[in-house]
Amino acid sequence: DLDAIVDALEDRNPEVRVRADVVGDDSPRPLSRQHEMDAEAAPALGDVDDSLDEVGDLPPVAQGKLLQVLEERTFARVGGSEVLHAQVRLIAATNRSLRRMVADGSFREDLYFRLQGFQVELPPLRQRQEDIPELALFFAARMAAHLDKRIDRFEPAAMALLQEHSWPGNVRELEHVVQRAVVVCAAEAISAGDLFFGETPTE
Fold first, then answer.
1. Residue 102 · residue 63 · CB < 8 Å
2. pLDDT at 87 over 90
3. Contacts of 85 (CB under 8 A, 6+ apart)
4. Cβ neighbours around 174 below 10 Å, total
5. C or N terminus of the chain, fewer CB within 10 Å?
6. What distance in Å separates the CA atoms of residue 178 and residue 99, rounded to the nearest whole number?
7. Which residue(s) pair with 91 in the sheet?
């Protein structure tokens, strides 16, 4: 179903028609090929929920395809000719100002208004430090399960470092820092020595 959508948006291929845009709103992410097989079996898709990250990075061609899917609720798989129908609920996210992009001509105004159904502004992670412990534990538990490791907490010094960091890369940076910490951690609690924040990018 949405696999084809991802192909169209992610591949940034101007020749691709509308196939993958079913993504409906905002955050293209890789989906299993089983979705494409399921789409072949059904001429119409039921209600679909998905997210599209960094919608502001979509090139003009992909913006047009996404708008077509949102407006007409139809798409075709990459390499296919059959028109499929879908009801899509899409959560689109971006850290860029779409309003400014509309003003400078880099983002379609009609797509901008189409995505304005319900807007939520989320402050950067540095402005909501109270969320860091819960997010860090979530990312740690997920990575530990993936690696079949038993890690269930952060040492106080490690958590203090997480809350003191400015997080220029926002939640994604936190996730990567925690993932690396889980990889190198040799105990059941992540220590300050397991954390690596890398170099802060400069202008």
1. no
2. no
3. 43, 44, 45, 73, 74
4. 19
5. C
6. 33
7. 51
